[in-house]
UniProtKB/TrEMBL annotation:
UniProt protein name: Holliday junction branch migration complex subunit RuvB
Binding of DNA, residues: 307, 326, 331
Pfam family, one: RuvB_N
Species: Streptomyces yaizuensis
Classification via PANTHER family: HOLLIDAY JUNCTION BRANCH MIGRATION COMPLEX SUBUNIT RUVB, PTHR42848
Encoding gene (name): ruvB
Cellular compartments annotated: Cytoplasm
Region (Disordered): 345-364
Length: 364
């Protein structure tokens, strides 16, 4: 089996961390999600603006009998970038090749993949911002001129042999669009940013997935799951499967609001979608450090996690929910954080009363 025939996922990310509300998918999740993925733009829920724009791009390409332009999809994990890449291939009636940036460490890796592509094939490159620089520079020419130069030999005797490629469509996906160099970003004919889903859209996702999983669920049960899914379809599907397990074992198999609430209480996912790690970070910030400011390293030690875990796994959602803020002096809790945990903020010291020195101990 060739390296380019392997479907790879984002390596080195905080994936498969065992969190029920984590945005990354492990092997089991990927298998289930593959069965739940929509197969066409009409079936795809949410991302109305992106779907409309992408439909125009693909329809026009089919009408011209041409290969679709290269597509760049950016956004948080779990919003449907991989699904859209598969839909693009389906809409263009083309095969798809799936790989990831971390898997391409040398220009030769990319050359092997590109040279084996068929005409019109879709190449999905996940986490494209993590591709090595030599491979990235080779990709410039491949995207623009459908050609790569293969270097034969070493040193002064090395020779560049041009290799023509059949027209193909590159679909790049990234969770950090700002890390893409402008020369690469500018070579995409269509770029789209995936937004977090509204609760109503996630309810539609839950109902559709429940139907595919042959699970009976009412409107209130779907709304309860959607409201705790952090705006992410992948999380909504994961919570649905865990609630289904609870309903089969503890109830009559039907998911209602009461069943969903009881199940998610067992799995420690609260009404706003916070899990154990999220609440541990907030609890330490509020109870141990009086709401901050406190440095990230100190906060990580307080919850028994690595600095990177707190910064990359817990913080983004807490900031987006308005429960935590990043400041030059450190992390601080917002009034909403105190209210969510049912705690009363300490009285603010009057100006000139001192106390600022202790706060400075927890700088960033």
């Amino acid at each position: 089996m060739n390296r380019d025939d392997i479907t790879t996922g984002p390596a080195g990310d905080p994936a498969a961390d065992g969190r029920l509300v984590g945005s990354f998918a492990d092997g089991e999740d990927q298998a289930v999600e593959a069965a739940l993925r929509p197969k066409s733009l009409d079936e795809f829920v949410g991302q109305e603006r992106v779907r409309e724009q992408l439909d125009l791009v693909l329809t026009a390409a089919r009408a011209r009998g041409a290969t679709a332009d290269h597509v760049l999809l950016s956004g948080a994990p779990g919003l449907g970038k991989t699904t859209l890449s598969m839909i693009i291939a389906t809409e263009m009636q083309a095969p798809i090749r799936i790989t990831s940036g971390p898997a391409i460490q040398h220009a030769g890796d990319l050359a092997a993949i590109l040279s084996s592509l068929q005409e019109g094939e879709v190449l999905f490159l996940d986490e494209i911002h993590r591709m090595s620089r030599p491979a990235e520079e080779m990709l410039y020419m491949a995207m623009e001129d459908f050609r790569v130069d293969v270097i034969v030999g070493k040193g002064p005797g090395a020779t560049a042999i041009p290799l023509d490629l059949p027209p193909f469509t590159l679909v790049g996906a990234t969770t950090r669009a700002g890390l893409l160099p402008p020369p690469l970003r500018d070579r995409f004919g269509f770029t789209a940013h995936m937004e977090f889903y509204a609760p109503a859209e996630l309810e539609r996702v839950v109902h559709r997935s429940a139907q595919l999983l042959d699970v009976e669920i009412d409107t209130e049960g779907a709304a309860e799951i959607a409201g705790r899914s952090r705006g992410t379809p992948r999380i909504a599907n994961r919570l649905l499967r865990r609630v289904r397990d609870y309903a089969q074992v503890k109830a009559d198999g039907r998911i209602t609001r009461a069943v969903a609430s009881a199940a998610l209480r067992v799995y420690e996912v609260d009404t706003r979608g916070l899990d154990r790690l999220d609440r541990a970070v907030l609890h330490a910030l509020l109870k141990l450090f009086g709401g901050g400011p406190v440095g990230l390293s100190t906060l990580a030690v307080a919850v028994g996690e690595e600095r990177e875990t707190v910064e990359e796994v817990a913080e983004p959602f807490l900031v987006r929910e308005g429960l935590l803020a990043r400041t030059p002096r450190g992390r601080i809790a917002t009034p909403a954080a105190w209210a969510h945990l049912g705690l009363v903020p300490p009285q603010q010291a009057p100006p000139g009363a001192g106390g600022g020195g202790q706060r400075g101990l927890f700088g960033p």
